[in-house]
Each structure stands twice: as structure tokens, then as C-alpha cells.
Amino acid sequence: MLDITANTSLYDIQGLPLWENGEQVLERTVAGEGNMNLVLRIKTTRRSVILKQSKAYVRKYPQIPAPIERLEIEKAILEAISDQKSVASFSPRVLHYHAENYLMLLEDLGSGSDFLDIYAGNKLISPEQLSILVDYLTGIHAIDSVKIPASKAMRALNHQHIFHLPFLADNGFNLDDIQVGLQALSKSYTSDERLAKQVTLLGKRYLEEEHALIHGDFYPGSWLEVGSDLKVIDPEFGGMGDAAFDLGVFLAHLDLAKQPPGYASLILERYTLPVDPVLVQGYRGVEILRRILGLAQLPLALSLEEKSRLLSQAKTLVLS
């Protein structure tokens, strides 16, 4: 297997079995953060494309093993989305997949910016953008008769970091490295047996439920503004799962980014498929808790007092 990096030579990239006859690779640059996978933008004599490669670990956290075959699942999800007219324009088309090197060549949606700035208070999602994002979720959740390879290993990895590790008293995370005082604040949540029991039940459902095609990581880093268009990328933790999970994660990140409080009601009113609101709110609470107490930290512009209030609200959502 050829291990591609951001510094892999153009010569080696040219040698990959991905290119059309006579097509020459001219340039390669890093495209986005690529938390799970290596993601490069490749410019050739004919086009601009996105090249992804999965590794046997999480790219952002190399100490965490991850199933290398995850790219095959993402490929199947993107192909299912491209076959659904209502959502096909949101995500890139798969141009080529090379299983031997765990490589996928994708349509380049164009240079744009994600929505991570909303955590710093530098970006406000408009009601129109909110509606588009809800319609995207409705569209993928409504896709039926799809054949997605089992994603149990990726689901198990995500489960560890959402429903398990953040709620352990001794999980190896020193939260004071993130914000002084956060470690002490976490203790009332990592020692709460009632909370742990309910989180465990939600985690069990997350692992077992497979009634809808879900994105699996529907947060601002997966939303792109390209010109006047809104795109959705990186369904790396997606597959057949629980639609309520996508909605809960969506709501949680609006809370974490201090977006208008009325947006939650707008989302649930616009989402037209049947869903259990209690489950949505439970997943919402867990996502808030794990993003403040777990390893997968965000660039949050929140004081310790604001985090304390959010944690308390999240606990109430989980236990309600």
C-alpha cells in the first residue's frame, strides 16, 4: 500500500491508477482539516479533484486505531446520496475508488469554507441555511432500499468517544489542559450513576438501530459554504442508523455555538419524517456533554460558567 501524505511527491501521485490517459498531475494541496482521513486537492491538466485515503488510525489522533476499510462505507453512502435527486447536489460524486490503496477520488465541489467559525461567534447560520440543512437530513433519512456495507467497527469507535470515555472518572483526559477548572466541573457528571445509566441506554440504541441512512457526524465541520451554495461532506461515521442521532447532534452544535435558541424549534418543525423527540433531545444532551468533557474538543468561545450552564442543561435533556 502506498501511504499518501501531504508531502507525497507529484511523481508518486501521478503513478496512482486514478488518472485518465494523458492526464498530468500539476499540484496537490491539503483540502480541509481531514480529522479522520488524509484529504488532498489535486489539480491536473484536465480538472481539480479531491483525493482521500484512510489509514489504520484517526488522522487527527494517530494514537487512536481506526478501521482502514471505512472509506468503502463512505463510498457507498456518497453513491446512495448521488442517486437521490433531492440531495445529490449537496455532496461530491465518487469518481474512482481504489480498494488496494484505500483511495477515493471525488468531485471537487470548489473552494469554500466550513462553519467552524460559528463556535467563536464569527458566523451566524441564517434561517435559510438552517432550512437547507434540515432538508438535507430529511432527504438522506428518506432514502430506502440502499445497500451500505456494515459499519459496526466505525460505529463502535464513535460509540467509545461519545457514550463511554467522556463519562469515565479516570479517562486519561486532563480537561484543565483545555480550560482551567473544567476537570473539577466534570466530576459531578462522571460520578452521576443515573446519568451514566441513561447514556448507556442511548449508546446501546445508537449501536443497534438501523432504520435510516444517517450522516453520522452532522456538525459545522461537515457543512461547506461554496459561493452561494451549501454543501455537506464527510459522512465517515454514517451508514444505516438512528435518524434521531443526526438531529440530536445538529441541535447540540447550535447550542455549543450559541446560535439563536429558536432554531431548535424551527428544525423540528421543518423535519417531516417521524422521529421520537425524546430520543432527539437525549442524543442532543449526550453530544453537548461529550464535546465539553471528551477528547473531541471544539474551538468553543465559552467561559467556564457558560460551559457549566450548558452541561447542566444537557444533563436535563438526557434524563428527561
Describe the fold and architecture:
- This protein has 320 residues and is α+β, with helices and mostly antiparallel strands.
- The chain has two domains: 10-107, Phosphorylase Kinase, domain 1, CATH 3.30.200; 113-319, Alpha-Beta Complex (Aminoglycoside 3'-phosphotransferase, Chain: A, domain 2).
- It is 39% helix and 14% strand.
- It has helices at residues 10-14, 70-82, 127-141, 152-164, 182-190, 193-208, 243-256, 263-270, 277-293, 304-319, and strands at residues 25-30, 38-44, 48-53, 94-98, 103-107, 113-114, 212-214, 223-226, 229-232, 239-241.
- Strands 1-2-3-5-4 form a five-stranded antiparallel sheet. The protein has a three-stranded antiparallel sheet with strand order 6-8-9, with helices on one face. The chain has a two-stranded antiparallel sheet with strand order 7-10.
- A hairpin with a 3-residue loop joins strand 2 and strand 3.
- Helix 4 (152-164) runs antiparallel to helix 6, helix 7 (243-256) crosses helix 9 (277-293) and helix 9 runs antiparallel to helix 10.
- The protein is globular.
The main pleated sheet reads as: 5 strands, antiparallel
CATH class of the largest domain: Alpha Beta
Which residues form runs of ≥5 with pLDDT under 50?
Answer: none
Broad shape: globular
Please report the number of helical segments: 10
Distance between the termini: 49 Å
Give me some keywords for this one.
320 residues, 10 strands, Phosphorylase Kinase, domain 1, alpha+beta, 14% strand
Furnish the topology, listing elements before pairings:
Blueprint lengths: L9 H5 L10 E6 L7 E7 L3 E6 L16 H13 L11 E5 L4 E5 L5 E2 L12 H15 L10 H13 L17 H9 L2 H16 L3 E3 L8 E4 L2 E4 L6 E3 L1 H14 L6 H8 L6 H17 L10 H16 L1
Antiparallel strand pairs: 1-2, 2-3, 3-5, 4-5, 6-8, 7-10, 8-9
Helix pairs in contact: 3-8, 4-6, 7-9, 9-10
